[in-house]
Write the structure tokens for this entry.
Amino acid sequence: MYPPELVKPMKEELTKVGFNELSSSSEVDEIIENSGDSLLLVVNSVCGCAAGNLRPGVRLSLNNETKPETLATVFAGVDGEATAQARKYFLPYPPSSPSVALFKEGKLVHFLERHHIEGGTPEMIAENLAEAYNQYC
């Protein structure tokens, strides 16, 4: 577990723009099952440049005309129960932090693993997500 004062600003980068912070397995199940047409679920993390580019990229992607109906996030290394439950919905993808999952009507339709995020700029991440929004949302 990371100290709360360390992760608070990283969490706020997403919650300030409308992401629901999930901390339990039941919250994860509920939001995936009841998210409506589309859900973007971000596995936030402390992990260096990947997470440092992910959060701005995700925020930038929300400038797209089409975007997910529901936004949610779990924090790897902090929200252990919620993160483990979210990862069950990401199968067959292995655990990855950070990562981003797009669901349509409760089904996983697009997934960015850490290796897709590392070395990418926020703009590249936003473009990838915006293309997925245009296709699935």
